[in-house]
Amino acid sequence: MLHLRKSLFRILETSAGKRRGISLIFNLLLITIITLNALAIVLHTVPEYNQRFARLFYDFEVFSVGFFTVEYLLRIWVCVENEKYHHWFWGRLRYIFSTAALIDFLAIFPFYFTLFATDLAIVRILRLFRIFRLFRISRYSHAFRMIQSVVNDKKEELILSTILVIFMLIIVSSVMYYVEHSAQPDKFSSIPATMWWGVTAMTTVGYGDIHPITPLGKLLGGIAAIVGIGLFALPTGILVSGFNEHIRVQKKPRITYCPHCGKEIVNH
Amino acid sequence: MLHLRKSLFRILETSAGKRRGISLIFNLLLITIITLNALAIVLHTVPEYNQRFARLFYDFEVFSVGFFTVEYLLRIWVCVENEKYHHWFWGRLRYIFSTAALIDFLAIFPFYFTLFATDLAIVRILRLFRIFRLFRISRYSHAFRMIQSVVNDKKEELILSTILVIFMLIIVSSVMYYVEHSAQPDKFSSIPATMWWGVTAMTTVGYGDIHPITPLGKLLGGIAAIVGIGLFALPTGILVSGFNEHIRVQKKPRITYCPHCGKEIVNH
Amino acid sequence: MLHLRKSLFRILETSAGKRRGISLIFNLLLITIITLNALAIVLHTVPEYNQRFARLFYDFEVFSVGFFTVEYLLRIWVCVENEKYHHWFWGRLRYIFSTAALIDFLAIFPFYFTLFATDLAIVRILRLFRIFRLFRISRYSHAFRMIQSVVNDKKEELILSTILVIFMLIIVSSVMYYVEHSAQPDKFSSIPATMWWGVTAMTTVGYGDIHPITPLGKLLGGIAAIVGIGLFALPTGILVSGFNEHIRVQKKPRITYCPHCGKEIVNH
Amino acid sequence: MLHLRKSLFRILETSAGKRRGISLIFNLLLITIITLNALAIVLHTVPEYNQRFARLFYDFEVFSVGFFTVEYLLRIWVCVENEKYHHWFWGRLRYIFSTAALIDFLAIFPFYFTLFATDLAIVRILRLFRIFRLFRISRYSHAFRMIQSVVNDKKEELILSTILVIFMLIIVSSVMYYVEHSAQPDKFSSIPATMWWGVTAMTTVGYGDIHPITPLGKLLGGIAAIVGIGLFALPTGILVSGFNEHIRVQKKPRITYCPHCGKEIVNH
C-alpha cells in the first residue's frame, strides 16, 4: 500500500526518477483532456454545435469530472509523500488549501454543486467556474512559472504604476465628466460612466461608442490619449525589462575583467 | 505650547523619530479620508446614489472639509519648526505658497467659496476643484516623487518630442484638411476640427466618428497612423528609459569579489 | 552543354564570380517582373482598371507565367551544379521540394491548373495563390533572412507567449460571454463570437462593431484592454530585443587600444 | 558695403561671434513670426474667425511674405561669406538649391504665384504650400537635427522594415479581399480598398468604417492585428534604440578596465 502510494506520487507529482515514462504519459493525457475541455467550453456555447452534439458534450463533461475527481482524491492521498505535507492530517489539510489543489477543486466542484442546485441563476454562474480547468494547465507550464517569477520580481513597480493608472483615470474622467456632461448627458451620465470612456481612450482602444464632441472635451480627449500612451508605456516597459532580465539570466555568462589584477571574470 | 508645536510637527510632517507611532496612525487616517473622498467624488455623480445618500454625501463633505481645514491651519502653525520656514511670518508665508500647501488649500477653498457664491455656474466649476483632494495623496506617494524626478531628468527630451508631436499634428492635419474638406465639409470643417482626427489617428485611438473617405485622404491617413506610431514611440521610449535608469540607480551596486586576487569589485 | 549549364547556374543562383554582370541584370529583371506582378494582382481587382486594361492584364499574366516557367525549368536543370543537389535524379527531386523551389512552383502552378479547371470556385481560390509570386522576392531579400534568423533564435519565447495570448484570450472571452450574453445575445452569441471582441479589445484595435454595454462587462473590458497591452508587450519586447541582438551581432566588434599598455582590446 | 555684408551674414546665419545679441533678437523675431503664421494657417480655416478677422489675416499674410522675401534676398546676397558658397555666381546658385534655401523659397513663392494665377484650383493647392513656413523653424530646431541624424544612422534598417510592412500589407489585404469580397462587395471592393482596412487594422487604429464580418475574415483580422503589433514594433524599436544611442553618446563616458594591464579606460 505504502509502496503503491510512493509510485503514484512519483507519477502524479515529480515526473522524474523511477516512474518517469508513465509519469510523462499521464501528464500528456492530462494536458490533452484539459485542452479538449477548453475546446468543449468554447464550442458548447455555439447554438448549432450545442444542439447537434449535446449528448457528446454531456458525456465528455461527466468523463472529465470523473477523471479529475479520481485524480484529485489520489493527489490528496499521496501528498504526504512530499516533505512539505508530511503529517497524515495537517499535511493533507495544508495541501488542500495550496493554490494548485484549490484550482483542482474549483475545476470539479461546480459540476457536483449543479447536480443539487435548483436555482438556474446559480447554475449558470457556476458553469463559468469550469474555466478553472484551463488554469490547471499552469501546473505544467513553463510560461506560467516565468510570469509568476517576473511579476514577483517587479511587484513593487507594478503596484506603483497600477495606482498611477487608476489615479490618472479618476482625474481625467472626473474632469471630462464636468466638461462633457451638459453636451452629452446620456453618455457622460456620471463619473463611473465616464471612466469607461477613460479606459478606452487611455488604452487607445477607442470603440467609438462614447467620445467627446465639445471642443474643450476633444482637447482633453487628445491630451488623455497622449498621456495614456505614456502611462501604459510604464507597466509595459517594466514587464518587458523584467522578461528580458529573466531571459538573460537563463542565458550565457557575461565576461568582464578584474580592475585590480586584470584577469577574466565570468559573471553568471 | 512650544513643546506641543514640536510634537505636532513630528506627527504631521516627519513620520520619523519620537512620535513615529502616532504619525503613522495619523497618516493612515488621512490617506483613508482622501480615498473615501475620491470615492465620494466619483459616486455622487451617479444620480441614484446621489438621491438616496444625499445626506451622507453632504455630511461626509462637511466632515472632510472640517478635518482638512483644522489640519491645514495646524500645518501653518507648526511649519516654523522646519528650518526652511524658520521665520514666524515670512517663513509661514513662504510655506503657504509651497506646492504641497497650495494643494491643501485648493482642496478646501472651493467648499467655503460655494457657501457664499450664488452663481450656479461658478459653483459647478469649483466642485471640479475637489479633485485636488486626490492630489493630496501625492504627499505620501513614492510614485509621484519618482515620476517627478524622472520627468525632471528627461525634461529636455520630453519638451523636444512634444514640440515634434505638435509640429507633426499641425502638418498632417493641415494637409488632411485640404484633401478631405471638399468631400466631407461638415466633418473636416476647419484645421482645428481636423486636428481632432489627427490626434485620434496618430495615437491610434480611432473612435470612428471622423475618418477620411477619399483615396488620397485614406493614403494620407495610413501614413499618419504609421508616422504616429513611430512618433509616440519617442516619448514612450524616453519615459521607459528614464524609469529604468531611476529604478537601476535606486538598486544598490552589486559587489562581487575577483576569483583571482580576491579584491572587491563594484558592478554598477 | 555542361559548360552552358555551369554558366547558367552562375547567372541564376550565385550572383558572384565570372558571370556576375549578367547575373545582376537577370536578378534586377526578375525583381522588376515580381514587383509588376504585385501591382497587377492589386490593381486587377479594381473594376474600372480590370475592364479598361483587361487585355494588358491577361497578356502580362501569360508573359509572367511563361518567364517564370522557363526560369523554373532551367533552375531544375542546373541545380545539380550545387553540391547539395549533386545527384542527377535524387538531387533534382530534393531541390524540387526545397522551400525556394516550392514557392517558385506555387507561383506558376495556379495558372496552368485554371486552364483546365471548369469549376469557378476553385479558379477563384487558386487566383489567390498568385500572391506566392510576391514571396519569390524573399530569395533576394536581406530582410526575410534576418526575420527568419530572429524568429529562429527566439522560437521558444515566441511560442510561449503565443500560448499565453491564446490562453488569456479564451479566459477573457469566456468570462465576457457569460457577462454580456444576456444583454446582447445577438453580438456576444457564443464564446467563439466573443473571441472576435477579445482580439479587437486586447490588440486595442477596437472597431466598435462589438463592445460590452453592461457595467460589469465594461469593467471586464477595461481590465482586458489593460492586460492586453501588457500581454502584447511581451512578443513585441521579445522581437525587438531579437532584432537588436541581430543588428548588434552583424556590426563588427569595435577594436580600441589600451591607453596605458597599448594592447588591442576587442569591445563586443 | 562688404563690411555691411559681413555683419548681416553674422546676424542671419551664425548667431555667434560679434553681432551675437542682434542675431539672437532677429532669430527670436523670426521664430515668433513663423509661430504666428502657423496659428494663422490653422485659424483662418475656421469660418467664423475667417469672416471676422479677414482683414487681419490678409494684412498679416502680406507682412509675413514681405518680411520673408526681404530676408530671402538678403540671405542670397550674404551667402558668399560662407566658404561653401564662395563664388559670386555659382556659389549663390548652389545656395539657392540648398535644402534650407528651397524651404525659404517655397514659403513665399505661392503668395506671388497666386497674385497672377486665375485658376482657383491651383490657388487652393498652392495655399497648402504655406505649411512650408512651418518647416522654416527646422533651421533653429535641435530636434530636427537630432531626428535627421538618427534617421541617417538607422537608414538601412528603416528601409528594410518599411519594405516588410508594405509587403505584409499587400499579402494580408490580398488574402482578406478574397475572403471578404463576396460578403461585403461594397466595402472590400478591391485590393487597394482593402488596404485601407489593412492599414487601420495593423496600426490598431480601427476606425470601424470597414471590418470583416465572416468567421474566416475575423480570424484573419485577428491574426493581422497581432502580426501588425509585432511588425510595427520593429520600426518603433529601431527608432527608440536609435534615439537612445544618440542621447547616450551625448552623455557621460563609460568606464571599463583593460584586460591586459587592468587599468581604467574611459570609453566616450
TrEMBL record, chains A, B, C, D:
Mention any Pfam family matching this sequence: Ion_trans
Q: Which residues cross the membrane?
A: 21-44, 56-74, 95-115, 121-137, 158-179, 219-243
GO molecular function, a single term: voltage-gated potassium channel activity
The record's SUPFAM superfamilies line, in alphabetical order, gives: Voltage-gated potassium channels (SSF81324)
Looking at the keywords, is rRNA processing present?
no
Keyword annotations: Ion channel, Ion transport, Membrane, Potassium, Potassium channel, Potassium transport, Transmembrane, Transmembrane helix, Transport, Voltage-gated channel
Say which domain of life the source belongs to. Answer: Bacteria
Predominant place of localization: membrane
Q: Which GO terms describe its cellular component?
A: voltage-gated potassium channel complex
Q: Cellular location of this protein?
A: Membrane
Under Gene3D superfamilies, the record lists: 1.10.287.70, Voltage-gated potassium channels. Chain C (1.20.120.350)
Biological process, per Gene Ontology: action potential
Domain Ion transport: where? 25-245
Q: How does it sit in the membrane?
A: Multi-pass membrane protein
Q: What's the name of the protein?
A: Ion transporter
Source organism: Spirosoma endbachense
According to the entry, what is the taxonomic lineage of the organism? Bacteria, Pseudomonadati, Bacteroidota, Cytophagia, Cytophagales
